[in-house]
Amino acid sequence: MPTIHWFRRDLRLTDNPALLASVAQADETGDDVVPLFVVDPALWRSAGAPRLAYLTHSLQALDESLDGRLVVRHGPPAEVVPAVAREVAAPAVHVTAATEPFGRRRDEAVEQALGVPLVRTGSPYAVAPGRLTTQAGTPFQVFTPFRGAWLDHGWSAPAGRPRQARWADVPSDGVPAGPETDVRLPPAGEQEAHAHWSQFLADGLAEYPTLRNRPDLDGTSMLSIPLKYGELHPRTLLADLSRAQFDTGTFRSELAWREFHADVLWHHPGAARQSLRTVVPEDSWDPGDAAFEAWAAGRTGYPFVDAGMRQLRALGWMHNRVRMVVASFLVKDLHVRWQRGAQHFMDWLVDGDVPQNQLNWQWVAGTGRDAAPYFRVFNPVTQGERFDPDGSYVRQWVPELRGVPGRAVHQPWRLGLEAPEDYPDPIVDHATERKVALDDFHRGRD
Questions:
Q1: pTM surpassing 0.90?
Q2: Is position 400 annotated as part of the catalytic site?
Q3: Chain Cα centroid distance, residue 310
Q4: Are 266 and 129 in contact (CB under 8 A)?
Q5: 339 and 201 both lie in a single domain
Q6: Is the CA virtual torsion 210, 212, 217, 223 positive or negative?
Q7: Known catalytic membership, residue 361
Q8: Are 250 and 288 part of one and the same domain?
Q9: 375 belongs to a structural domain
Q10: What's the pLDDT score for residue 410?
Q11: Are residues 243 and 386 located together in one domain of the fold?
């Protein structure tokens, strides 16, 4: 009667409390553990090709760490998981608790159909969403007090790795082949994630507070990808941060933002699709496609924006500072609803994660919790000049502008006859559209 550990957003063996619980239950009776992954058609249809391609690579790495015993089955989880449980006569199915709306609905359906306990242990976060509240017992609306409560609450020490676990030999459909994609994917899997984190700890963390906003420099950790798939747990990172010999508060705060967004979505599941507050009248939005398509293709005529959108297409990833700029440009210069941009990001981002993506878009759009005020409009030129001062980031991703030296690359329309012929003129005037956005905001307040 082997127990089942159903892998979802925890594709690792180390620091996986749910897996340890499954192994412990199996050890009590001398039985094995079935490491299960379900290929859910609903998620497979909706996920972008870069995410699916990376996921298959991560599953291959997980299978290798399990000595080839990962059991992959295809179909709706509410049908597949009970079927596997009956097949092996499992006394329980162990999972890391789902916290996003889709996962919670899925698990409720599985639980109703299962017939044995669905045991939830831990979550993908250091502090489970929904656990922290204000002194009045209400959800946090603002990040800074949430971070204070999060730090005060603390988190458990990292869990270990199962020792002498016996993996059951159960028929598997095999790890599916990923879709074709031109995106240059990073190495996947728990081992690669730990190696990447160790290198960043040694070589990048000390300078993170000063370099993290510079897309022209290698100053970020890029750990959003392994965190999304659970190849690393934030608890592991936080434990390592506590042993650093320098201030790690900035990096810790970025992890807190991730947990804040998950907490907001826990309390407001509709935020995945709907604005948490209305900031402009309905007639403010542009229903056309031409501007959106130019933005998506990196052909807006604003080099810093276009560099970010082309980086997204090439890597399935974009620097966080640039994500804010391109999002602001879409919503407040082109007047396109944030939901459309968020969906484009989910189609292309390898680290596409619903609470982080949707709530970050709402932050920029001014519609979310702890949102940047709607009247904060990122200037795509000054942002580029400040955070890409020599223009090397733009020249890396916009080859039409590689002949333009220095910071002049951020305003190629000022070059006159020397402007590159194959690069577009700005599709809008930023100053004009900023005024339109602010006028719409004030109309919405009247």
A1: yes
A2: no
A3: 18
A4: yes
A5: no
A6: positive
A7: yes
A8: no
A9: yes
A10: 97
A11: no
Catalytic residue among 64, 79, 192, 257: 257
Q: Report the amino acid identity of residue 399.
A: P
Contact between 429 and 329 under an 8 Å Cβ cutoff? The reply is no
How far is Cα 224 from Cα 236, in angstroms, rounded to an integer?
A: 14
Catalytic residue among 167, 295, 348, 361: 361
Q: Catalytic residue, from 213, 285, 400, 433: name it.
A: 285
Is residue 217 domain-shared with residue 311, that is, in the same domain? no
Residue from 403, 404, 357, 409 nearest 380 by CA:
409
Task: Name the domain boundary from 216, 232, 267.
Answer: 267
- pLDDT at residue 373 in the model: 73
Annotated catalytic residue, options 338, 348, 363, 397: 338
Task: Check whether residue 37 and residue 86 sit in a common domain.
Answer: yes
Residue 133 included in any domain:
no
347 three-state secondary structure = helix
Q: How many domains does the chain have?
A: 3
pLDDT digits (tens, 9 = 90+) for 219-275: 999 999 999 999 999 999 999 999 999 999 999 999 999 999 999 999 999 999 999
Active site residue 397: no
Q: Does 12 score more than 90 pLDDT?
A: yes
pLDDT in tens, 97-117: 999 999 999 999 999 999 999
Residue 308 to residue 109: CA distance in whole angstroms: 40
d(CA 30, CA 43): 35
**Is 180 noted as a catalytic residue in this protein?**
no
Class of residue 276 by CB neighbours under 10 A (exposed 0-12, middle 13-18, buried 19+): middle
Out of 64, 79, 87, 254, pick the active-site residue.
254
Q: Let me know if 338 is a catalytic residue.
A: yes
Question: Is-catalytic flag, 320?
Answer: yes
Contact 314, 184 (CB under 8 A): yes
123, 144, 177: which is the final residue of a domain? 123
Domain containing 314 equals: 282-445
User: What 3-state class would DSSP assign to 34?
Assistant: strand
Residue 49 belongs to domain with CATH number? 3.40.50.620
Answer yes or no: is 394 within a domain.
yes
Quick one: 353 and 251 in the same domain? no
Residue 277 DSSP class: S
**Residue whose structure tokens are 């959800």:** 139
Q: Which two tokens stand for residue 430?
A: 């930023």
